[in-house]
Write a structure and sequence with these properties.
This protein has 208 residues and is α/β, with parallel strands linked by helices. It has helices at residues 40-49, 64-75, 103-106, 115-127, 147-157, 188-207, and strands at residues 18-23, 25-28, 36-39, 54-61, 79-85, 131-138, 161-165, 178-181.
C-alpha cells in the first residue's frame, strides 16, 4: 500500500444540480496566516459566491494549510470530496513557477497513473451522475492521471465541461465544451467570464 494514500473514505452524495470542480487544489503564498485558495479551490469558492451549488474533488495535504482550506471551503457551502495526502504539505504555488521545474516541485508525490489518481477518477464518475456541469482545473500538479477520463465522464453524463489549464496541459482536452489557458490564481473578472460560459451551457443543456 502506498504510504501517502488513504483509501478508506466514504462516498459523498453531492447535492442535485451541482457543478463539479475537479483537479489541482492549491493555495497562494501569504505573508500572514490567511489561506488564499488557488486553482480548483478558487473555482469552487467562486461558484459558491454566486449561490451556485458546487462540489470539489481533489487532494490536499494533512498540514495546517490543508485543514484551514478545507474549513474555508466547507464554511462557504462547497460540497467536499477532498482527500488528504498524508506526509505531504498542501501545494503552495511558487511566486515564480518555472515551466521546467523539477517534478517534485510541481506535483503530488506520485508518478504515472497512481492508485490515488485512479481513485479520484472513480469518484468523478460517481459525482457526475447528478451534476449539471464539470469544471476541470489542470495546472500540472499531478491530480489528473488521464486528461481524457474526466471529459469522457462528462460526455457520458451529457453535461458541458469547462477546462481551465496551464498552457502546456491543453493536450487531451480537445473534446471539452471549452478550454481556456489560465494560471494557478485566476483573475476574478476572467474567472467570472469563464464560469458564466459554463453556466450558460448548463442552461442550454437543460432547455434542450
Amino acid at each position: 500500500m502506498n504510504p501517502f494514500f488513504t483509501p478508506n473514505v466514504d462516498a459523498v452524495d453531492h447535492p442535485d444540480g451541482h457543478i463539479l470542480v475537479v483537479g489541482d487544489i492549491a493555495v497562494m503564498p501569504a505573508a500572514d496566516a490567511k489561506v488564499i485558495p488557488a486553482a480548483a479551490a478558487q473555482v469552487a469558492l467562486r461558484l459558491a459566491l454566486f449561490k451556485q451549488q458546487s462540489a470539489l474533488i481533489g487532494f490536499i495535504g494533512d498540514d495546517e494549510r490543508g485543514i484551514a482550506l478545507h474549513n474555508k471551503l466547507r464554511a462557504a457551502g462547497v460540497s467536499l470530496d477532498v482527500l488528504q495526502v498524508t506526509k505531504w504539505p498542501s501545494y503552495v504555488v511558487p511566486a515564480h513557477l518555472e515551466a521546467n521545474a523539477p517534478e517534485q516541485q510541481r506535483v503530488l508525490p506520485f508518478n504515472g497513473m497512481s492508485e490515488y489518481q485512479a481513485h479520484l477518477q472513480n469518484r468523478v464518475e460517481r459525482a457526475v451522475r447528478n451534476a449539471v456541469g464539470v469544471v476541470i482545473v489542470d495546472q500540472g500538479f499531478g491530480s489528473l492521471g488521464d486528461a481524457r477520463a474526466a471529459i469522457f465522464a462528462a460526455e457520458q453524463a451529457r453535461i458541458p465541461s469547462l477546462v481551465l489549464c496551464a498552457s502546456d496541459r491543453r493536450r487531451g482536452y480537445e473534446k471539452a465544451t471549452r478550454v481556456t489557458t489560465v494560471g494557478p490564481l485566476i483573475e476574478a473578472d476572467m474567472l467570472d467570464q469563464q464560469l458564466a460560459v459554463i453556466r450558460s451551457a448548463v442552461d442550454d443543456s437543460r432547455s434542450g
